Amino acid sequence: MADIPADYLDAVARAWVRKSVFMPKAAELIALAEEMAAANAQDTRTLAQKYNDRMAQDPLARPDRKWIDTPNGPKLVPK
User: What are phi and psi of 65, to 5 degrees?
Assistant: First the structure.
């Protein structure tokens, strides 16, 4: 478990809670983290692209804004 990055461990725990009411075994969490890592390795979109895709699906998102990539990370700007 110590080898799993904290962000993956958090995502795995949240996914497990939606999946099962029982406490997971360490091996189950590790396997789920490996699945998530493999899925993320295939996703070559930048964070800004991911945020824009998420905004496009959200009916409450502001249509006059978009995310762009900057050297300091994603930034929300006017379109």
Answer: -125, 155
| C-alpha to C-alpha distance for 70 and 2, rounded to whole angstroms | 32
**Residue bearing tokens 């800004």:** 48
Give the pLDDT confidence of 22-67 residue by residue, as tens digits: 998 989 888 888 888 777 667 678 888 988 998 999 999 889 999 9
Residue 5 corresponds to which tokens in the numbers above?
């990055």
Report if pTM > 0.70: no
C-alpha span between 7 and 79 (Å, rounded): 30
Please say whether the dihedral angle defined by the alpha carbons of residues 69, 57, 36 and 26, taken in this order, is positive or negative: positive
Nearest to 4 by CA among 45, 42, 34: 34
Tokens read off for 79: 């379109």
Q: Are 52 and 66 in contact (CB under 8 A)?
A: yes
